[in-house]
Amino acid sequence: MARFLLTAMPFSGHVAPVAAVAGALVSRGNDVRLYTGSAFRRQVEAAGARFVPWRAAPDFDEQDLPATFPRLVGKKGFAQLMINMEDLFIATAPAQLDDVRAEWGREPWDALVSDEASLAPSVIAESIGCPWATLAILPLHLVSQQGPPPGLGLRPGRAALGRSRDAALRALIPALSGRINRASARARAAIGLPETRDGFERQVWSAQLVLASGVPALDFDLPDRPAHLHWVGRLASAASVPHPPWWPDLDGRRVIVVTQGTQNVNPDDLLRPALEALADDDALIVASTGVRGEDALSFPIPANARTAALLPFDELFPRADLVVTNGGWGGVLTALSHGRPLVVAGGDLDKPEVAGRVDAAGAGVNLKTGRPRPAAVRAGVDRVLGDPAFRVRAVEISAAMAAAGGVERAATLLEEFAQ
Predict the structure, then answer these.
(1) Are residues 163 and 306 in the same domain?
(2) Overall pTM > 0.85
(3) How far apart are CA 293 and CA 262, in angstroms?
(4) Contact predicate 327/151, CB 8 Å
(5) Residue 241 lies in a domain
(6) 114 vs 126, 345, 389, 398, CA distance in Å?
């Protein structure tokens, strides 16, 4: 038996894969604790892990971030991304260290396992002196010496001109990361750690073990990945939620699913234009609002549409012909695990990167905006449904993810690491 502390930033899309790995470790007889926000206590305990709450760290509501982080009021796009990085993923690191250091004092662990979004795991491992593995639950954004910087959603250049573009963009990273790196330096100084020459984009990664969700086909096939990186496919099952009352309407119908995830859930961004675009389609259009308790939208929906707050995607996607999504990584991996092609409208945070990777893998279409016009959604749907190559490629990626081993492979690698 090994002792693990797992940590996850308190977002549904972060906690779900980390809790799934926790459950696999518990089932093998390991002692597992999971440190995250109080909203996820039940989910952590359902996995069999011991729950460790954010106490000193500000315990926030993922669907009302401005209530805890007021600089986010009215912010979207790049401004939202930068404040998220500074206030959520960096500035909370000292308080997270206080919480985790207190837990270490009560009972040490053999290995720390953390998602890659926050500065906190690196300062925890450095301050306490424990082995640390990264569980990459977002599209892999390890810095590479080939291709463009991660986050832009650009395909790596293959010809000389494209490679020159990529090199020029990589050279801009220090200048573009200055604000983030200064925030990281302030957090390290507040903890009493020495300065580091590594930027934030390197500090969030363990140099010992990285387990990445997904498969190489969704990584632009970059060749210079480190030896301590292991691809493990899909890590989390979709949430178990009851069938909505209209579930029998799916029987005998062609189905298109529209989902906008659980962050930035303004339905005007994607749900409204998608429902408008597909109002005359002979398919049943199934849309998730992404907000617990809100099964209906605030505007009239067409006769061929059905809505629910949350949906059992692992039951729904096998019945769908296509998924229209905002590009949340968890939802994309779920759709591809069932061999379903995608139309991706990725507007902010990591979503443009996800959209670019799906497009480059040949498993879907990138609309290149998070707020598409109905005509663009219609064109994307027609293109994907009209070309069987998209479905073929999605099925190939599904097979690759299954072969990667999922949570059981991740648990095996973590047990070996802890020993």
Answers:
(1) no
(2) yes
(3) 13
(4) no
(5) no
(6) 14, 28, 37, 25
For residues 119 and 267, state if they share a domain: no
* 201 lies in the same domain as 278: no
Q: What angle do CA 200, 139, 115 make, to 5 degrees?
A: 60
Number of domains in the chain: 2
Same domain for 224 and 342, yes or no, is: no
List, for residues 201-231, the tens digit of each pLDDT value.
899 999 999 999 999 999 987 888 999 999 9
Measure CA of the first residue to CA of the last residue in the chain; give whole Å: 9
CATH of the domain at 219: 3.40.50.2000
φ/ψ bin of 194: left (φ > 0), alpha (ψ from -120 to 50), beta (otherwise): beta
Residues 130, 152: Cα–Cα separation, whole Å = 34
Does a structural domain hold residue 132?
yes
Within 8 A by CB and 6+ apart from 151, the residues are: 141, 350, 352, 353
DSSP states of 325-370:
E---HHHHHHHHHTT--EEE---STTHHHHHHHHHHHTSEEE-S-S
Q: Determine what percent of the chain falls in helix, strand and coil, rounding each to the nearest 5.
A: 45, 15, 40
Residue 318 structural domain:
247-402
Contacts for 125 with CB less than 8 Å, ≥ 6 apart: 112, 131, 132, 206
Dump pLDDT digits (tens) for 309-345.
Answer: 989 999 999 999 999 999 999 999 999 999 999 999 9
N residues, the chain = 419
Tokens of 258: 């529209």
